[in-house]
Amino acid sequence: MLYIECPYCGSRAHEEFTYIGDATKKRPDGAEKNDPAWVDYVYTRDNPRGPHLELWHHSLGCREVVKVLRNTLTHEILATGRPGDEIAAPEAEAGQ
């Protein structure tokens, strides 16, 4: 069982959380009328191998959004924090 360290509630089972999406995507500027930028933001997703920043919603707990650094190969939770926190992803190893 995976446990996610919620910055508001402490360690909780991952069943209490709902995956929201990729935390590395940056929303295009609101004044920007560039359709390709919005299409990329809304529809294009990478399928990374290794450490990846994700957003999770603590839907059965405090209902806050949590930033999670998770290894997509092992599902190991490497770090967690608030959405505005800086969480540095370790450098990907060659061949991953």
Topology overview:
Layout: E1 3-6, E2 10-13, E3 18-22, H1 35-43, E4 51-57, E5 65-71, E6 77-81
Antiparallel strand pairs: 1-2, 3-4, 4-5, 5-6
What would your notes on this structure say?
There is one protein chain. The chain contains 1 helix and 6 strands; from the N terminus they run βββαβββ. It has 96 residues and is mainly beta. The strands form 2 sheets. The protein has a 4-stranded antiparallel beta sheet, with no helix packed on it. Strands 1-2 form a two-stranded antiparallel ribbon. The radius of gyration is 15 Å and the shape is globular.
Mean pLDDT, to the nearest integer, reads 88
From the alpha carbons, calculate the radius of gyration and give it in angstroms: 15 Å
What is the 3D form?
A: globular
What proportion strand? 25-35%
Q: How far from one another are the termini?
A: 25 Å
Q: Number of helical segments?
A: 1
- Side-by-side strand order of the widest sheet: 3-4-5-6
Low-confidence stretches: none
Tally of strands: 6
Structural class, from secondary structure content? Answer: mainly beta
Order of helices and strands: EEEHEEE
Main β-sheet, in a few words?
4 strands, antiparallel
